[in-house]
Amino acid sequence: MTYETLLVEVRGRVAIVTLNRPQALNALNSTVMEELREALAGFQKNSDVGAVVLTGSEKAFAAGADIKEMQSLDFVDAYLGDFISGWEDVAGFRKPMIAAVSGFALGGGCELAMMCDFIIASSTAKFGQPEITLGVIPGMGGSQRLTRAVGKAKAMDLCLSGRMMDAAEAERSGLVARVVEPERLLEEAIAAAVKIAAFSAPAVLMAKESVNRAFELTLAEGLRFERRLFHSLFATEDQKEGMAAFTEKRKAAFRNR
Ligand code: CO8
Q1: Which pTM does this prediction carry?
Q2: Same domain, 66 and 25
Q3: Known InterPro entries for this protein (predicted)?
Q4: Which of 67, 82, 161, 165 best tests ligand 1's pocket when mutated (most atoms within 8 Å of CB)?
Q5: Same domain, 153 and 103
Q6: Is residue 181 scored above 70 in pLDDT?
Q7: ipTM of the complex
């Protein structure tokens, strides 16, 4: 499958998706959205893909929604067409997805990185929600996911001032899971994805689902939800294999069923 705005490569059980609009610093237009949704829908159905790495270029993960595309939009068109709502399918992807971020992750770019399960950043990465400088506000989670990730003080600072934060500040604030040197970014993200994709797929998907529920449920309901999923994993062959491998002091060979 070839795309206009994405490069897609599958290595073993890991799919690597590279945003590829270098002329616009990977600005996210409707083609990127449609193509990413299509690629992810394919990975969702493909049991040979266990995890995804989403990345951009050295200079930009993505410098935001495409300003030139949305410039002339009016309220009625945006509202009736439910502009950008298709990105929810990216956030709803059920398999693990790691963002490997180098350079600018601004506006929709920062929001796209936050739709992934965790972010590995190059030391050159810069995160921000500069929408306020354009007379708008974040539209795809910047005021919500960012606030949950970094807390009110930093989220307010970024959304109100439009300033960027570097990788070190992003890691300190809890937005980023790991920071690595630029030349190691992709290698580190792929290694993490390879490791995750080798675990039991039902356990991996349930771990993701359970962590995500922490943002929606009360603690008591979340704990109950987690426990029910935990119970259900005892119905899998992989649980038997994982625990047998531990007691037999060998590496588990998960069948992903
Ligand atoms: N949209 C369209 N084109 C862009 C964008 C963008 N967001 N960002 C950069 N480009 C283009 C530039 O116009 C330029 O094109 P051209 O050469 O044809 O003029 C090319 O990319 C290179 O950019 P610069 O020359 O500006 O590169 P610099 O290195 O000088 O500056 C910056 C890099 C600082 C990143 C600068 O390009 C910039 O400020 N970009 C805009 C950042 C921004 O405001 N982003 C927020 C956009 S609004 C948004 O994201 C709303 C989110 C809503 C939900 C989206 C769902 C995913």
Answers
A1: 0.97
A2: yes
A3: ClpP/crotonase-like_dom_sf (IPR029045), Enoyl-CoA_hyd/isom_CS (IPR018376), Enoyl-CoA_hydra/iso (IPR001753), Enoyl-CoA_hydra_C (IPR014748)
A4: 67
A5: yes
A6: yes
A7: 0.98
When the pLDDT of each residue in the chain is averaged and rounded to a whole number, the result is 97
For residue 33, report the distance from its CA to the centre of ligand 1, in Å.
16
**Predicted confidence (pLDDT) per residue in 77-125, tens digit:** 999 999 999 999 999 999 999 999 999 999 999 999 999 999 999 999 9
Atom 41, ligand 1: which residue's CA is nearest? 63
Nearest residue by C-alpha to atom 30 in ligand 1 = 25
**Which residue, 90, 103, 117, is CA-closest to 33?**
90
Q: What is the DSSP string of 86-115?
A: GGHHHHT--S-EEEEE-SEEETHHHHHHHH
Q: Which domain holds residue 161?
A: 6-197
* Domain match, 192 and 205 both: no
Within 8 A by CB and 6+ apart from 78, the residues are: none
H or E, element range at 250: none
Tell me if 52 is assigned to some domain.
yes
